[in-house]
Amino acid sequence: MDIKSKDRNLMLTLVLLALVAVFFVGTVLKTAAVDEKIAEYTSKYETLETAAAEKQAAVDVLSAQHAQAEQQWKPYVILYEKWVGWNEEILQYINR
Amino acid sequence: MERGDIAVHKPLTAIRVVYALIAVMGAIAAVLLIVSTPKTNALNKLITDCNTLEAQCASLDASYAQMSADIETYNGIYDKIETLKTQYFSNVRTLENMILNGESDVRIAYLTFDDGPFQSSGAYLDLLDSYGIRATFFVLKKQDMYDTYFREIMAGHTLGNHTATHDIQTIYTSAQSFMNSVDSLESYLYNTFHYRATIVRFPGGSSSAGGNRYAIINALHAQGYGYVDWTVSSGDGGRYLTDPQAACDYIMSHVGDDKIIVLLMHDYSTVSIRTLPLVIDQLQQKGFIFLPLFKDSCMIN
User: Fold this and answer.
1) DSSP state, residue B288
2) Which chain A residue lies closest to B42 (C-alpha atoms)?
3) Is B65 an 8 Å CB contact of chain A?
4) In the structure, what pLDDT confidence band is assigned to residue A15 with cuts at 50, 70 and 90?
5) What's the ipTM?
6) Which segments in chain B show pLDDT lower than 50?
7) Is A13 touching B (CB cutoff 8 A)?
8) Residue A7 — very low, low, confident or very high, per pLDDT cuts 50/70/90?
9) Whole-number pLDDT of residue B37
10) What's the DSSP call for residue B157?
11) For B53, which residue in chain A has the nearest alpha carbon?
């Protein structure tokens, strides 16, 4: 093997080393980043899970009150809308 | 071994070290890559789950806000209806004045039905609904007729106070006796339906009160009531008109040229339920509209 071939081999080897080194560092950094993100989102998930449970409990309580109020009062809401219409009718008789 | 041989060996050894380094780093990186793949999948699932929970929280917030707003609406609905009714009847009074002053060619018929509610009242309510007409029901105190009272109120009819019992032998013995009967019915209507009946009709008409008529009228006015008799009677209380057309002709003959009438009927009558469509049609042809009575009407005393 002559001197030039040896130098070429050495260069190629160093380039390969550089590429593998970049690949190695990138993989290490990416793994660390993923671990950090997992920790972050795990904490966020637990917070959201607690909040969702509390909100669901509040909605369940209000829902029972709402159902009772709706049964009792919805006919009156409909009646109110009827009176709005009847008032408009009378105004038409006055204004014609 | 010559000097040149050593120079050849040195680069060969260094390259082997480099190759070894490359192999080690590559192996480590490959292992890390393999291990990180499930971690990345787990992270993506966590992100998705967090997004789902956020959306769920937003939806729950919206539901809570909507239900709170609905309950707020329900809590104030009585007052809103009463305010609107006051405005409505003020407008009707304006229309009455215009009619009486000749400024409007509209005529008003106040249909009134006494002594109910009855089981037969439903048919009358169906008929009025079919015409889109509201009327006035001078009711007694019948605590087993909740549904009919409620239906009358929800249809926008006026409930008038016809005393609790219609017991003419008792209620006209004194003003106090009469007012006790009025108050009994009023309490039932208010406590059960939150409804205030502000118009009274004397059972049998105000002339039935005899010598106590003016005392009763004063007592009614003192408690904020108005009272009304009628301008046209259907005659169904006497039950001597059994043919609907004859009954209709009788009623129309008493309407005459009146621009505002108060028609007396009874919602127990099997004749009036068949007469009413004929009367409504004829009154409509004469330009009448049909409204429920109210305390400030020109027809109320």
Assistant:
1) E
2) A38
3) no
4) confident
5) 0.80
6) 1
7) yes
8) confident
9) 84
10) P
11) A48
A contact test, residue of B39, B52, B72 with most A CBs within 10 A: B39
Residue B118: predicted pLDDT: 96
Lookup result for tokens 């120079």: B7
H or E element in which residue B205 lies:
none
Three-class SS state of B139:
strand
Interface touch A38/B92, C-beta < 8 Å: no
d(CA B229, CA A1): 132
* Interstrand relation of B158-161 and B288-290 (parallel, antiparallel or unpaired): unpaired
Closest Cα of chain A to B88: distance in Å?
Answer: 5
Amino acid, res. B275: T
Enter the DSSP assignment of B173: T
Q: Encoding tokens for residue B106?
A: 């509209």
Helix or strand run (H / E) with residue B52: helix B3-75
| pLDDT at site A3 | 65
Query: Tell me, what's the pLDDT at B159?
Result: 98
**At B261, phi and psi to the nearest 5?**
-125, 155
Q: Taking CB atoms and an 8 Å limit, are A83 and B81 in contact across chains?
A: yes
Residue B139, min C-alpha distance to chain A (Å): 21
Is B68's Cβ below 8 Å from some Cβ in A? Answer: yes
Show contacts of B140-145: CB within 8 Å, 24+ apart.
Answer: B140/B115, B140/B116, B140/B164, B140/B165, B140/B166, B140/B185, B141/B165, B141/B184, B141/B185, B141/B188, B142/B116, B142/B117, B143/B188, B145/B116, B145/B117, B145/B118, B145/B121
Q: Which of B54, B61, B71, B94 is best to mutate for the A interface (most A CBs within 10 A)?
A: B71
- Nearest-by-CA chain B residue for A75: B154
Q: What is the pLDDT of residue A2?
A: 67
User: Nearest residue on chain A to B4, judged by CA atoms?
Assistant: A3
